[in-house]
Queue: 2 jobs
Job 1
Amino acid sequence: MTTLDSSFETDLREAVLDSAEARLRAELGPRLVGLARDRWEAYASRNDYDISHIWEDAELEVTREPDGVTLRVEWPELTALFEFGVSPHTIEGDPVLRFYYERIGEVVYATSVDWGSETGGIPESRAIRDALRQFRREVSA
Amino acid sequence: MADHLLVETVLDWLGNWDENNAPQPVLIDRDDAESQSFAGRQVAWDLTEDNVLSVASTPERQTEAIGTEYDHRVEDAVSVRIEAAHQDAADFPGDSIAAGVSGAGAFQNLVDEAKRTILTERTSFPSANGVDYHTVLIEGEQNLAAEQKDYYRYDFDVVFRGYETLP
């Protein structure tokens, strides 16, 4: 007859969490970052943007809690502007704006600027949201 | 890219907007609006003239083979974006603009009515180009108004799940 150790439930929980944590760190986490990276690279080359810092600086963090494991990916600041896009808008100075305008090679003073009036703004990339949708399907399959 | 028919479907549904709950925004098909061809198309809207709800087929289609023959399990989505300006966002303090919302509460009404109008049709089982959708739901809601003074924006995806019968 086998006697179960009184701590076997706790041990089992720990073992399950251990393996989940290891898998998130080694396999699933990098997979999610990779899925997003593929989309970011396609988006950057499509629009001719120099935004390689977005995928290079993505940080993966796996935290262990008593009853679960959390995977958290942090993309650098301002990534959201590319993820969601920006509509053309007017920027107003307080009271004036001063900036170097590359095309004419001069410093310009203005009270307001119609940002995006020529480029049409920043198109949304959806890199992260689409990566998450694919990731969710892969994990739940 | 999701099927463009889905964008038109959602825009159709939004035609049932109930003005009693929130003023109806201008409805824009962003697939055309964000294209390079500007001729005759609305590419941008002045938010001081009206609130805007735009729909695009930008989310990727996800497919998966099922069965032995086989057919496809499909997940499509369209992206809905609601934008509005604060009604005090005029050039001079004290002025107000023709449209816009009076604050976060009024904007919330706009978002709620959009979601309600879309979800009312969740059981209408749309089909598009050989795909029959059995489920319609709203996912990935993001309120992007937090960092702005005068600009409100809310994004969500309308997800369509269904099956594609391959020939």
Job 2
Amino acid sequence: MIVRWICEKCSKKWIYPVEKCVYCKGDITKQKGTNIKVIGITKVTIPSPMHPIIPYNILLLEDEFGNKIPKKTMKDYKIGDTYKEQKAKTKDAVAVVKVKYDIYEAIKESIELLNDIKLNPDGKILVKPSIITPAYPYQAINTNPDFLNALLNVLFELGIKKENVIVAEQPLIGSDAADAASKSGILEICKKNGVDFVDISKGPFEDVESDGYTFKIFKEALDRKVINIPIMKTNFQLGISGAIENLSRLVDEKTQRAMYFDDIEITFQKLAKVIPDVFTIADATNGMQGQGPLVLGEPAFLNLVFASRNAAALDAIFCEATMLQIPSYVQDNNFDSKKIEVVGNELDALKYPIKSAVPDDTPHPDIKVIDGKACPACLNLMYNLTSRLVGLRGEQLNLIIGSMLAKEMLDGKERLVALGDCAIKKLEDLDIKAITKIEENVDEIEQLMLLKKLLTTEGTPKITPVDKVKLKMKNLLSKVTG
Amino acid sequence: MYIKGVGMTKFGAQTYTSQELVYEATLEALNDADFNIGDIDAVVVSAIDTESNGERQRLFSNVLSSILRKKVPILTVTAVCGGGGAALWTANKLDYNNVLVAGVERLLTNNSMRITDEIMMAAERIYEQTEGMNFPAENALVAQQYMLKYGATPDDLALVAYKNHQNAFLNPKARFYKKKVSLEEIKKSPVVASPLRLFDCSIPANGASALILSKDKTDVEIVGSAEESDYLAPFERDDMTSWDATKLAAEEAYKQTGISPSDIDIAEMHDAFTSVELISYEDLGFCKKGDGKEMIRKGITNIDGKMPVNTSGGLKAKGHPISATGVSQIYEIVKQMRNECGERQVSDVKYALAQNIGGAGSTVTVHVLRKVSS
């Protein structure tokens, strides 16, 4: 489809979505061309960073209104050929659509390519964005509010009633849900569209068993169709945060911790199987690359919408398109990403590498992390503590988090600091001595003071009674000053 | 306004900083004008804000203030490949006695993928860049439409390249100076974006050019100066094979001058791609639409033809250091008017035209210069 914005009064056209004509101030309407022909072709043999695979073709397409656009393809066409996007033939297909300044049209097209969501107009819907921490939309940490807004408009156009839609999420353990929803802009979009925002952490939850594992799942997620709208990001711990990872916050905090403790490689897949009715439409308009999923990551302008009924297939195709390694939690033994049907755009025509995350980096250059698949609580704690010490140089430390640790992971590493209850217990089980341990239930200022001492002092400093008095004074002072 | 002095570095792969390149070109222009920098009242400079050249000098006008030791108004004007022409057009509007106009680029500073990407940023981001539309591809689609419509052939494009390489062979400032390129080599060069081959594309280079614009009467006068803009992407225009910005700028420049295209003796055209030179013959009014191919087939634009085009070697073979190109076109015209071009000298040049383009026909300046009789 070729879209132009056209003035209803004077017929001037734009390739950009404008609201009023600057000449006659007339209203604007969309002109959508669907009868598309190939009128030009060039075969390109020189690579560029966003288009590293050569040769590729660029078609010059023209619609019935004479509107033209270029289109990249790896296939060969002839001038005069008809150009039409094929719809999905398999249930696990992934649609990938480029956003041409109009997220609404891209979401709609992605759904159409998958032969529609097949929604019951009276059916109830839970929209599940990613809102993991209080952050502005430009930081690309949370699902973009414009993406949610466009999706809600598509749902309403499909006949879904506002009162039957809720937007539900809980942030990473340790972050505040209301604060995150507000700063991310999601709350404002919910209000604007008259739909409720629901904090998942408040429950209720229902026990659901899968392959011998019990999940406490948010009841609404079991009763409603889930429209999963993650933002697609790199994740230093998981490889990527995408469709599957976003579903992991549909369970209560205790289950989340247990899922990490028992190895997310297994538990993520089990969870994806027990949420009955999920359709994922992923926000890769402005995703994240590098040291994601939080503030250390860089926004990556990808300009794409991914959609699928199969969350794992969607994550795999995102990795293929961005040339990232597919995390093992995404694929089980029978999974072959090369066999997933991709519609909307050809996978090879989309491919270019984004920056992957470095697994052991923290915000602090002198503090490395050895991650035994820590749960979001410890991950958040590690980020908070290390980022607050930036600017203070010292002796290199290795923070150990999570429980999925093996002796080999720690071989040759010095100045080990166990952070969090899982790591402390695991190191004891492995009979490995850390220079100190930082427990989760200790006051955050005390945790920070200890880490600061460890960084700046050789040996194994401890929190002294004098430190405790200082901490009490500090806490008191902060309460008095508000 | 008059041209008091001109200067330019050799266009090549030298590793000097941008300010060093401007300094070298400026020194030559000052010597040519018999000026020192104290005589300059204002500076207009063009340089694109590249990320890949590693200089990290976004406030380049003040880098020039430092290196030229000047505390006068200094403006930066950017229009990618059309930046030099846009700087001259801007300077011509300023009410100063003596204005230094400079263009500079360090383009050859990174691998070719990064350079391709750097130039690609001049294309439309959503419709073009994300669809792989680098500049050869952009111009290839235009060239194909043009060839389909008017019957021009790849051999016509090869003739344009061959002519400009022959001229560059004679120009000591050109990147292809004394480097022979045969018609056969041009025709057999690899395809970069069909139908365009490697030798249909201009050659990237580093370099700077400078001129001094003056209210004092000299031997070369700018009699026409026009700038016009068009939509960024060619696919958005009604006709991809004819560029409105060139046509409008040329019409305006001729109107200011009071001459017609047939009065022009030589022209420096923006041959970023050989197809652009063919299209420009027509849009600048040197022949009717579709007859550009005849101009090259009949040798009209050869150095010994009726109206030589790109005697410097053009962007094609002199080299194309983006923002430096527009000012370097004026350098060549001034040298031709003063009979200082040695083996590539064209006799009796009274009127000359320079066309400089930013993007694929998006920003175009046309300048007409007149030789002032003593």
